[in-house]
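Write out this protein's structure.
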Amino acid sequence: MEPRKVYLDNSATTKVAEEVLNAMIPYFSNDPGNPNSLHQWGRGARRAVDESRESVASLIGAGIHEIVFTGNGSAADNLAIKGSAWADKKNRKHIITSAVEHHAVIDTCKWLGKTGYDITYLPVDEFGMVHPETLKGAIRDDTLLASVMHANNEVGTVNPIEELGAICRERGVLFHTDAVQTAGHIPIDVSKLPVDMLTMSAHKMYGPKGTGALYVRKGIKLVPLVHGGGQEYGIRSGTEDTAGIAGFGAAARLAKRLFEEGEETRVSCLRDKLLDGIIEKIPNSFVTGHRTKRLPFHGSVCVRRIEGEGILLRMDYAGIGVSSGSACTSGSLEPSHVLLAMGLDHATAHGSVRLTLGRDTTEDDINYVLEKFPPIVEILRKMSPYKGG
């Protein structure tokens, strides 16, 4: 008998929703038009792109001309950071980010650091949170941009973006936030938030992989990373992926419906049951990230005297999909840079496990995980070279 299948890796990627797939299918074959062509097939594709742009804009309270579609979230992060740096006519060379950003932000900043920019990496507290006072103290006269993620992908902590953005706006500094983990899961209204640029990704909210978007507040100038046909208001050239964008639009509409149905409350209750159960049933385990100021679907723990990779493999054998640290660096044997920045030692950080729920997660799924997880830890601890508490 095959084991029960429980997918708890929704921070890495979500299952494409049925309504999203249905919105995409016509543009793979039956409606082949290039959205930049003038004939009826092209006009049909253009309508799909425009309607999706409106849906994505509506999800975050943006104007339709403030949404630029990209190939993914990493491309949007790169466009925001490099594009604004290269467009700055004041020749400011100082950029601020945090020590716990996704590598799409950290590595972009590191690359700019090799080309003459001075990068400041803000420290975080034990929960992985950036404090406004820290950002305020880091801003200089030559600071061009601050990029701080809305919520951390590894530990789920939500940053005080409104306060951080307000500090930047007061000092005339551009503010970008990577909202890949939050868009579609917690309400965002950029008409009220002091955010100049915001990154989103369709596949984190039941949409397709390979489609991202960057919110660019009206009046912000960016130099394109890709030159060519001048698509996406001249900011991101290349023929638009009509099917992917249509899927993103459908995912944005689904997200608004899930907000109305109270999905955020339902999944956060299951998350709390999961975390409480793990801490109760597994000695020497603890929650990472802020316990309440975190993504509603996000659970992350560290299990002492054990390696997360071993947990991942044995959980997989039991039919449970989880991750150890970030999916983008899961092939690395190095401990999470996020957990190290939060003050954990190397041995403890190696025992990190991320369990992220989705709209298909049920209470029976959580019960199954709480049944299988503790004995897996017990077996691995007997095999572990780590000793002590």
